[in-house]
Structure formats: structure tokens, C-alpha cells
């Protein structure tokens, strides 16, 4: 077994374990993520609080596990949405070519030129204030998904263009294959590895974007935890030095991002 | 004088002189937290320029930041007429600006004319605009000025603390100053260098000329973390204001450099949207208009916990609109805020709410749930919001927290009124209640729970309007205080703002500085800059 395969297995195992932990958050965590032990703010790790407590006395382990659920389940959803948008638009552009391709790529370029962070902040501000916290979390990731497609679109457009100009598609056309059959039987199966790669690449990007938004106080709102708002705990240097348990969200984020990078299909596999 | 005695006298001077020299001189280093927009004291409208004005400007009457009493400065005495419109000031003789131009009553007249000129748009001058008409300034002699305003100006003497006198004739214009230092160099975005004013009028009790320091080097540094780091590295000797987190960190390292002046004037508070046209459901508007509902919210909040957990103990529970730090204007008859969840539930029940299964519902059966907005990126306010959320959950109220970027928040607060409750702070730099007129008058723009009303929406707001106008025109401070005490009482009873905490004024002062005595009023760490000295060793910051 090659080293890469072994690494992949380890990464897959770790990811599965983390996902399972997140799914079973209600069972494995001793306390509610919102419960404030006000007599124990910034407590060090102990048998009662495995990773210690945050500045408001909330159990860090419980918050980390619930935060994993939020970040790890919603980031793939946002990645799926953005890849689907990129797939439809990129596929259309690559397939039709000409002015349609130029128009779609122009829109993508414009979107990429817009400062994403400010667009996100503006869109977040436009959301109704009376959204339930959970809905607001979903809305945040939905916005991320809706805005995250342009980078993938260029890759998918190029891949579709290659397929359009390929010999097998010319052969299919010459044998009288209709457009619908051509898309679903010829183009889509050949595009699938690129779509999958874009999906996997996007997941850590969305996790990190949510973390950035939360660092600015614009991500998932209190009291719901996410890796992003847990990372804000690192701003308090003295609390970190007295409780290394505060680094756990950073460690978790790093592990997950590395695992995703290891699992990603290589260039040869895509080819 | 006999010859031997003369020799002894000369020897004594010779022996004392090095000691005196060793205690004086040196350059003090600290930071401004922004670019000064102007060096013209009349046009000051930002904190950095205000600090420069304080360090360079000579004023007629100075408010002592520690005793909160007014002291003669360029004016040795003053008298206000019975109608409160005219102030007669007697000036010190034989004073000179930093460039050597003599100081006379003409300079005061020139300054007041500039201050009140509508074309100049002076924010400092706005405080003096009491009515329609021009301000008259007479100079009967070189040392006497008579200023007559179109209408009574409440707290007039205190307002003069903000007016740095300009020279009417100096070719250096606003750069000629009467304060302890003058601006000698300015590099935009980098630093402001101030040098000792050789013509400064003050002397210490031994008759030595002040200030003791040769100069000040003010680095322009917006990043507070870098400022703290530089202080700890010993590159700075003073930090004018610290947040509680940095203060705790610094105190752990060296308790002697972290200095707490006590609870300040600034407050954090929440309020509910009571704007009649706000796009909110009618039942929610009814909750927010209910004084009992607001009082119940106030009683459900554990302010002691907020002080202890969010501010590390460096804040005090807030009583009301005036902090106890404001010694004269604070209404000491107000009861201390109490955390009383049972009392809160009792108030809510009296107001028709029902509590069951950890849920509070109104008379129509609606679950009591609202969203509190605050500005994003402010970790302290986000922590306060999370604590409020928890406190209110104990009386069955579900509070959601939304953080918004500041422009969006202001848009909702002032234009669309599309919000339910808001958590923000009020920065008070003025001791006098007149500085809060726009907050308490129902027509005021900063009457945040329901701003810009044409006529007061409630009887108590009408009473507050009346009392604020009475205090603004009353002839004595005692009478003014009577009215303002009643205003504080009404605000306490009605809780349009639910006051949470008054943050402590925290500073850092290097042990190399002699004479520092941090106060709660601005500028807390260097209000007595003219008597600050550096130890001969000149050690900086927290470094030993």
C-alpha cells in the first residue's frame, strides 16, 4: 500500500470520527453549549470540564463538539451549493462557447473582483433580525454557498470546453446523439471528477471563511458555537496561556483541513 | 550680605541645582490613537486633536480633573451676571504666547469671535450657542473681558475649560499657544513632537517654572495591542486608556504600572425600540412601551456578574444616566441596582405576562422573544449580550443576539428603526447635564428609544423635557441639580435605557514617571502633564 493511500485512510478515519462525534454531540457532551458556569470563567482543564471553560464559564468541550457539528455539517452543504451553481453555469459556458461563455465568465470575473468580505457583511446586514439563531446560521452558510461559485466556475468551464472539443463528443454527435443524452451520458460523467475535486476543495475554504466572519463578529451568532466563534477565544492571550484547551478549535480546524487536503483526488486521478 | 554667608548661599545653590535639574527635563513618550485632524483648537472634533489641545492650549478657567472643581487659569477671577448671559473675566498680567507675543484681552475677544463665528463651524462653539443673536465681547482693559451671550449659557465656566485661547496678532496663528507645550514637529501618520513652552505661566510651589518635562513624543498608533506591547517593551511610558483585559495582563506583570482611577463616566446600556412607526408587530411595541416590562428586564440582569466576568471586576453596576464618578451631578438618592429574578417575574405578572414551563407569554399568548442588536467585532459587548441572554432565559424570555457592522446598525437605529432592542455605550466627556440635552429631550436625535418626537409621546418624557429646560436656565447649580436629580429619578423609574455598567478608567503609567495621579476625566493619565516628571534613570514602560 502506498504512503498516499495509507495517509488517506488515516485522514478518512479521522474525518469519520470527527463527523460521528459531531453527530452524537447530544450524547457525548456533558453540558449544554450555552450553560454558563459563572463561578468558573476561564477555568483550566479538569475532570469536570475536559477542555476548561471560556470567558463566560461555558464548557469548552461541549462547545467544541457542537461547534464541529455546525461547521462540519454546514460547510459541505455550502460547498455543494456553490459547486452546483459553478457546475451549471460553468458547464453552460463551456458547452455553448461564444458570447454566452464570454458573458458568463465576465459575470464570474466581476463577482471575483468584488470584495467578498464586504459583500458578505452587506448581505448579512440585510437579513431580517428576527431570524431564529439556527436559521441565521443556515443563512450565513447559504450566503457563503451563493457567493462562493466564481472560482470553481472557471475550472469547470475549461473542463467542459475540453470535453466539447473532444473526439468522443464529435463521434457521439455524428452518431446522432441528442443534446440531453449527450449532457447526461457523455459530458457529466467526464466532468464528475472535476466537480468532486471542486467540492472537496471548497469545504475547507468555507470553514475558514466562516471562521473569518466569526472573527469579525459576523458569523454564527451567540450562543450557538462554531469553530469560527470559538477561535475568537484565542484573542485573549492571557486566557490561552493559562488554558491551552482553548487551542482545541484551532487544532480541530487544522486537522480537518489537512484531512480534506489529503483525501482530495490527485491530478493523475482526475486525469 | 556678609561675604561668608554669600559663599554659603552660592554653595547651597550649587548643591541644590543638580538635584533640581535631575528631577526635571526629559521627553515623555506615549501614543495618540488617531491622526489629529487639526491643530486649531477652535476646530477640534476628534480625540487626538482634543489631546493636543489639552497639552498645548491655555484656557481661561481649568476644570481640575481630580477634584472636579474649577480653578483659575489665564483668568484669575470671574463673575457671572444674574441673568446668566454675561461673564466678566479678569486676566493674568504679563503673560506671553509660546512665540513671545503678549497675551491680552484682545486675544480672548478674538478667540470668542472665532468660536462663535457660524462660518467656522466649531463643535466647541456649539456648546455656547444658547439662543438667536450675536455674542458681544467687550475689552474694557488689557486684563478684563466681558462676554455677553444672547441667552443664558448653563455651566458657562466649565465650558471655558474647552476653549484654548488663540493669539490675535501672532504670525504663527494657532501654533502660538499659552499651554505647557507647543507643537514643534508633526509627521503625518507617524508622530507629533511637542516641546516645552518657555513662556508657560505656571510655576510650582517652590517657584520653579512648569512644565518639568522638556517635551512629549506622541506616536500615532491606532492598534492598542501594539501600544501595549511597546509599553511592555519600555518604548512608551504611559497609556492613557486601557481595556480591562490588557489591564489585568499588565497588572499580573507589574502591579505598580497598572493604575485604576475608578468607575468612569461612560456607560453600557440597552434600550428597546419605542418608535411608533417602527416596522415591528404591535404586540412587541406594547411590551417595549411597558415600563414594568423594562423594569423587569432591568431586575433580571445580574450586573455584578457582568462586572466580574466581562470586565474582570474593573467596572461598577450602573445606577442610571449619571455615573457616581460625576460627583456633583450624580443623584445619590437612587437605590443601587439589584439582581432580582423573582421581582422581575412578579413585575411581569403584574403587567399581564404569564410564566410557565420556562416560557414567558403575553396576554395574547405570544412567546416573549426579541432580538438584541449590537455592533460586530466588539468582544466585550458580545460577551455582555451572551450574559443578558442567559439572565433573561431565567425569566422565560428568549433573547436572540445579532451583531451588525456599525453603519448598518446606525442605519437601523436612526433611519429605518428596524430593530427591537439595542446594546451600545454612551461616551460621556462632559460632567454637565447640558452635554446630554440631545439624549434626554424627546425631540433630540440621540433620544434613542424614540428620537426626534414632535411632541413628547409620554407624560414622563414631557416632564423630562420640562426639567431639562429648567435646569438649563436655572440661575444656580443647586437649582439645576434639583431638576436634574428628578430627571435621573424618572429615568430610573421608567428605564428607557436599562443601564448596565460604568467601566473603570484604566491606565498604565511607568514607574519612571513621578507625579502621575490618574483621574476619571479626560485625559485620565496625563491631565496634570505640567507637573509630571521623569526619574533621572529615565526607565521606560514596564521594563525594570
Low-confidence stretches of chain B: 10-23
Number of helices of chain B: 16
Main beta-sheet strand count, sense and barrel state of chain B: 7 strands, mixed
Task: List the quaternary state of the chains.
Answer: heterodimer
Number of strands of chain A: 0
Structural class of chain A: mainly alpha
Which structural class do the helices and strands of chain B define? alpha+beta
Question: Per DSSP, what share of the residues of chain A sits in E-state strands of 2 or more residues?
Answer: under 5%
Biggest interface pair, residues each?
A: A-B, 28 and 32 residues
State the distance separating the first and last CA atoms of chain B: 48 Å
**What percentage of residues of chain B falls in helices of 4 or more residues?**
25-40%
- Compressed to H and E, one letter per element, the order of chain A equals HHHHHHHHHHHHH
Mean pLDDT of chain A: 86
3D architecture notes:
The complex is a heterodimer of chains A (271) and B (544). By secondary structure, chain A is mostly helical. Chain A contains 13 helices and no strands. The longest helix of chain A is centred in the first third of the chain and has 37 residues, at 60-96. In chain B, the strands form six sheets. In chain B, strands 11, 12, 13, 16, 17, 18 and 19 form a seven-stranded mixed β-sheet that branches. A four-stranded mixed β-sheet of chain B has the order 1-10-9-8, covered by helices on one side. Chain B starts with a helix and ends in a 10-residue tail after the last strand. Classes of the chains: A mainly alpha (271), B alpha+beta (544). Chains A and B meet through α5 of A and α7, α10, β16, α12 and β17 of B.
Give the key terms:
heterodimer; A: 271 residues; mainly alpha; 72% helix; B: 544 residues; alpha+beta; four-stranded mixed beta sheet; 16 helices; 21 strands
